[in-house]
Amino acid sequence: MRVGFNPHKDKIQQASEYVHQVIIPVYIPNQEGYFKDSFAILKLCLESLCATVHEKTFITIVNNGSEKIVADYLDLLLKENKIQELIHTENIGKLNAILKGLVGNAIELVTISDSDVLFLPNWQKETLKVFKEVSKAGVVGIVPQFKTYESNCGNVLFDSLFNSKLQFVPVKNKEALIRFYDSLGWDRNYNQDYLAYTLALEVNPELSVLIGSGHFVATYKKDIFESVVTYIGYKMGGKSEGYLDTLPLEKDYWRLTTVDNYAYHMGNTIENWMVVDTPNESKENVIVEYSFLKRKKINSILYFIKNRLFVKFISVKILVKLFLKWKRLPKKMIHNY
Fold it and tell me: Largest Cα–Cα distance of the chain, in whole Å?
């Protein structure tokens, strides 16, 4: 039987002291074959993360069915207060693991990352700068990639089409861009023009952003996830690939990326360049109150116009060429870009 009165009943939940959450799902079932170096890479990932975030960061690790040595390592990180939340589960699939980490808090920004990301100094400060200066930013990546404006960016292009500050600009960090595609195992026989120019929007004289964002590490406004599904029926791929892409569009949020590179994708093989000393992020970068405005879902007609009809229209071959020319891609690149 129950005796007495629970002292926590009807108590209001205190606001969180954290302003930024990072969620990393981890699946390392063994250390053989494809996963031979994965544990060592996970350690580099989490060490770089802990070294580059401010003290108001809430780190959530979802152990998605990894072997015992990995689980024990993560338990130790939690015990040492290097991470703030650890969820152990069987292998329920990458996106389902992410969904587990998303619920249960009201932290305004959430970074969702793969476990093979090497975080670089200032990634968090530069991410926040984009959210602060671009009210419609909903997703902000920190690793520039090829032609990201072609994916889930119909609303950005629709809204900015007649903005003269939307134009192709020289790539800021060519070496980092090359390293990213090396990490995917690509040969370097891709279009070299992609290493030279990229589509950007000048927000103000001190800030420009790239249009579009990749998936393996990006930061989201938490209000995007006010309503989420509870289960995705794929381990990876399938419908799970597009779920995180379409949610921001429902509130007309833009996908953007920092102009410079603030993380590396390591892949599944250790290389010498990955083992570097990463200085701690300055605590002066802490911003206690983010206070982002929440957006409501746009109506279905406007969604269709921006993200279906306009995308189909602007994808017509002759219009693509006109767009590239209009937005100042060098003439010699237009034919093959």
Answer: 81
Could you tell me the CA-to-CA distances from 322 to 159, 160, 316, 333, 334 in Å, in that order? Answer: 18, 16, 10, 13, 9
Q: Which amino acid is at 138?
A: G
Say how far apart CA 33 and CA 104 lie, in whole Å: 36
CA distance 35 to 40: 10
Q: What is the pTM of this model?
A: 0.92
Q: Any idea what the Cα angle at residue 335 is, between residues 330 and 337, rounded to 5°?
A: 70
pLDDT digits (tens, 9 = 90+) for 27-51: 999 999 999 999 999 999 999 999 9
Q: Is 202 within 8 Å of 231 (Cβ atoms)?
A: no
CATH T-level topology, domain 20-269+295-333: Spore Coat Polysaccharide Biosynthesis Protein SpsA; Chain A (3.90.550)
Instruction: Tell me the per-residue pLDDT of 61-100, one tens digit each, with 9 for 90 and over.
Output: 999 999 999 999 999 999 999 999 999 999 999 999 999 9
- Alpha carbon distance 215, 113 (integer Å): 8
